[in-house]
Design a protein that fits this description.
With 171 residues, this protein is mainly beta. It contains 1 helix and 17 strands. The protein starts with a strand and ends with a strand.
């Protein structure tokens, strides 16, 4: 998954960072502004993360705000972070850019699969709904990142899923 994040702080102003996350057999692979980074994150208390980023350790307090932004505090530094919708970002910056190659569609957060919208072997267009996942009492339609054929759907209706779990594969 690719995210555009707007970070703002009093000391460094505002900046936009691009974060790409991909799950593999050993865990998560991350790229920050196109550069591979070693990252490990653990929630050590409610709203507190311990993050190891390229060998440096950070303890970050996260406070959500009603406007959808996050207040992040580490040591004496404080930031405001806002994740910009990746679908709006790709459309705004690159026109109709599609993902390339075989794509594993992952659960963005823990939840339950409530409806399958396609079947294995079916042709889909980029942006077409594949399935619906309910998380935190909200239903989220998971869309195809590319045009292609649904290779397999390991998820089943009614099945609980964890964040990062493969829901569907489009080739």
């Amino acid at each position: 998954m690719r995210y555009e994040v707007r970070l703002a702080s009093l000391s460094s102003g505002e900046q936009i960072r691009v974060i790409e996350l991909e799950r593999d057999a050993s865990g998560w692979c991350a790229r920050l502004d196109g550069r591979p980074v070693a990252i490990d994150a653990v929630e050590i208390a409610p709203h507190t993360l311990s993050i190891l980023l390229d060998g440096q350790s950070f303890e970050i307090s996260v406070t959500p705000s009603p406007n959808g932004k996050l207040k992040l505090q580490t040591g004496s530094r404080e930031f405001t972070a806002e994740v910009i919708d990746p679908r709006a970002w790709s459309g705004r910056r690159h026109g109709n850019v599609e993902a390339e190659g075989r794509q594993q569609i992952l659960a963005p957060m823990p939840g339950k699969v409530v409806r399958l919208l396609v079947k294995a072997g079916e042709h889909v267009e980029a942006g077409q709904g594949l399935l619906v996942v309910e998380a935190m009492k909200m239903q989220n339609e998971i869309r195809s990142p590319k045009s292609g054929t649904v290779e397999r759907i390991p998820a089943k209706e009614g099945q609980p899923v964890n964040a990062g779990e493969v829901l569907c594969v489009v080739a």
